[in-house]
Design brief:
The complex is a heterodimer of chains A (about 325) and B (about 120). Chain A has helices at about 5-10, 15-35, 45-55, 65-90, 115-130, 135-155, 165-180, 185-215, 225-250, 255-275, 280-305. The longest helix of chain A has 29 residues, at about 65-90. Chain A contains eleven helices and no strands. The two termini of chain A are about 45 Å apart. With about 325 residues, chain A is an all-alpha fold. Chain A has one domain (about 65-305). In chain A, about 70% of the residues lie in helices and about 0% in strands. With about 120 residues, chain B is of the alpha+beta class. Chain B has one domain: Winged helix-like DNA-binding domain superfamily/Winged helix DNA-binding domain (Arc Repressor Mutant, subunit A, Orthogonal Bundle). Chain B is built from five helices and two strands. Chain B has helices at about 5-15, 25-35, 40-55, 80-105, 115-120; strands spanning about 60-65, 70-75. Chain B has a two-stranded antiparallel sheet with strand order 1-2. In chain B, helix 1 (about 5-15) crosses helix 2. Chain B starts with 6 loop residues before the first helix and ends with a helix. Classes of the chains: A mainly alpha (about 325), B alpha+beta (about 120).
Chain lengths: ~325, ~120
């Protein structure tokens, strides 16, 4: 296979309509850039084409509001993941004195599950984003990998994993953060992580104390309060984002906050539905919410991108 | 456009300011303008060109096929030239302000580490 054909194969990352319009020109530029004896595309070019192709498929290159929305969603996803992690680590996971002797499984030190191993990486990711945004995505990637590794730890060791909905939620938030975090980042963008994390922890702890006072708090995942409480925190965040987005749309005809709300609704919405009551009752609802949010996002991207296509036209004279 | 231009965007517009260039020409010129710091990958370049065309800051002037390769030449539009002028003036004002304050700092006898490296010492 020649270098040109290998580049053509990589260009399949772009949508067909884009390739028809731009493919040969892009291929020419790639070949112009390559030394005469090169037979394989450099790794940097390959990654660049795959990333830019996916951005084009998601219309991020043409839809500024969607691109800004993804960035906003990422800035909020990271403190959500870090805040939920700290809450679980400090409040939900520690084994209470009364429960310690009767556990039917091996505890992870003084914790119910091996979750703290992953929770620590989310706190680390928020701190890395604050200190050196350049490494923020890598730190979030580590958080995602460590969170998914909890499933393997559960399978091959005697330690228990946290519930699947929490693993799925942290993974989903991490994917959004990985997709949207970009450096360089301004100081306010960097500060969102620790401030948001702190605010979420504060609200969840306050609610926990209130529930303990009211006698309704049990603390462990599989009883209704922990999952519902975390889902409520995420849904409240979505509600605030939607409110900001609505005001922004009315006042400035700008949809970035609404896009951010829609993007975050994908990982948050179905988990929120799942944690409302017993799994038998809520699994169909959670599946419906997942399909609905993904469907609405895909349709919105398709509709928005179809009205903003920019044709490549040759001008007869300079304007 | 009220927002500040990112450096790669500023360099692409600068590369097209004096003459139309095709994609590879823009990559080479940006590399030259930035003293080798900014190396645009083709995928990134065409994403930026699409955005600049959508904003009416650049346009395609002509197409050529040479050695079986399609080359489109881009030029700066009047809107693009206005934006680049405004951004260059803003950067020049910022640089002048920084130079003046550093000059005052030196007159006050305060140290200026790395002054020679920055090229501010005359």
């Amino acid at each position: 296979m020649s270098l040109a054909n290998r580049y053509r194969w990589l260009l399949r990352a772009y949508p067909r309509r884009y390739r028809e319009q731009r493919g040969e020109e892009l291929l020419s530029t790639l070949l112009d850039s390559a030394p005469a004896n090169r037979t394989w595309p450099p790794l940097a070019d390959a990654v660049d084409l795959l990333v830019c192709g996916m951005r084009e498929r998601l219309a991020l290159n043409r839809l500024r509001a969607l691109d800004r929305g993804l960035r906003l969603a990422a800035l909020i996803a990271l403190p959500l993941a870090a805040g939920l992690s700290v809450f679980c680590w400090l409040v939900v996971e520690p084994i209470t004195d009364s429960a310690g002797e009767d556990l039917p499984f091996t505890p992870f030190g003084s914790f119910y599950t091996c979750g703290p191993a992953a929770y620590a990486t989310w706190v680390l990711a928020a701190l890395v984003w604050l200190a050196t945004p350049r490494w923020g995505r890598a730190a979030v990637g580590l958080g995602v990998i460590t969170t998914l590794a909890l499933v393997a730890i559960d399978a091959v060791t005697e330690y228990q994993r946290p519930p699947a909905y929490l693993i799925a939620l942290l993974t989903g938030l991490g994917i959004v953060a990985c997709a949207g975090l970009r450096s360089p980042a301004s100081l306010p963008e960097r500060l969102v992580a620790p401030v948001g994390t702190g605010a979420l922890i504060g609200v969840l702890l306050l609610l926990t104390v209130l529930m303990e006072r009211l006698g309704g708090w049990s603390g462990f995942f599989y009883r209704w309060t922990a999952g519902e409480l975390m889902s409520a925190g995420c849904l409240a965040t979505l509600a605030v984002m939607f409110l900001i987005g609505s005001v922004q749309m009315v006042r400035r005809l700008e949809a970035s906050w609404l896009w951010a709300t829609l993007i975050l609704a994908v990982p948050v919405g179905w988990v929120a539905a799942y944690t409302q009551g017993g799994p038998q009752r809520t699994r169909p609802l959670a599946l419906f919410v997942l399909v609905a949010t993904v469907g609405v996002l895909v349709i919105a991207v398709k509709l928005a991108s179809s009205v903003r296509l920019v044709p490549v036209r040759t001008t007869s004279s300079r304007s | 456009m009220a927002t500040r231009l990112q450096e790669p965007t500023f360099l692409i517009l600068t590369a097209l300011a004096d003459q139309p260039r095709h994609g590879y020409g823009v990559i080479q010129e940006v590399l030259r303008l930035s003293d080798g710091r900014v190396q645009l990958r083709p995928g990134t370049l065409y994403g930026a060109l699409d955005r600049l065309m959508a904003d009416g800051l650049i346009a395609v002037e002509r197409e050529e096929i040479s050695d079986g390769r399609l080359r489109r030449y881009y030029h700066l539009t009047d809107d693009g030239a206005s934006l680049l002028t405004a951004e260059a003036e803003r950067l020049a004002r910022n640089a002048a302000a920084a130079t003046e304050r550093l000059h005052r700092r030196r007159q006050a006898g305060l140290p200026l580490p790395g002054l020679f490296a920055l090229g501010l010492e005359h």
